[in-house]
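## Example record

The block below lists the input lines for one assembly entry, exactly as stored, with component labels intact.
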Amino acid sequence: QQKVQQSPESLSVPEGGMASLNCTSSDRNFQYFWWYRQHSGEGPKALMSIFSDGDKKEGRFTAHLNKASLHVSLHIRDSQPSDSALYFCAVSELGGSALGRLHFGAGTQLIVIP
Amino acid sequence: NSKVIQTPRYLVKGQGQKAKMRCIPEKGHPVVFWYQQNKNNEFKFLINFQNQEVLQQIDMTEKRFSAECPSNSPCSLEIQSSEAGDSALYLCASSLGGLNQDTQYFGPGTRLLVL
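Predicted structure tokens for the full assembly:
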């Protein structure tokens, strides 16, 4: 069973615009969230993690977590062509039994149009 | 920027051949993970280590793969008898700890093509 659902599958935004990506965990045991970005031909790069309700901002990236609904969003303001990539949401399990194993969503392909 | 090193970047093997790939984790990271990313960009966890000890592995890894993280040497993942379905990007990641809140940092991957 897929533990992480992401939407949309793909997204096009103009350069300088705002991109908004969504992620939901289907299992209440999985509440630690990460956003990763993967450019073509590279490995995933961690953008940010979020574990508590509310917003977390890092530069142009803002994540928002609602633990009641297990929904997290990622907002990229002032999008740049270099932001064009696959964005993955990943979750890990509460407690220590899973030993850090991540479960990834299917990804959102972001295209920033110059 | 992540400093996880993976070699080789590309690997081409025939069916039934062994395929071996290596990973040097970030300095000071005792926990190493291997994931498989298929052509549909789906990730599959394979195995993880803390120092030299296996923490978890899935059935497929247990049966057809061998993996190790020896002291003072690169970690390695080897497919004993490659199958067409093994064609994928193999990603190594490392983290400071095995806790579920520790960020994993990925290398560039080894892209395996099984002909």
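The mean pLDDT of chain A is 93. Chain A touches chain B at residues 32, 34, 36, 41-46, 49, 51, 86, 88, 92-96, 98-104, 106-107 (CB under 8 Å).
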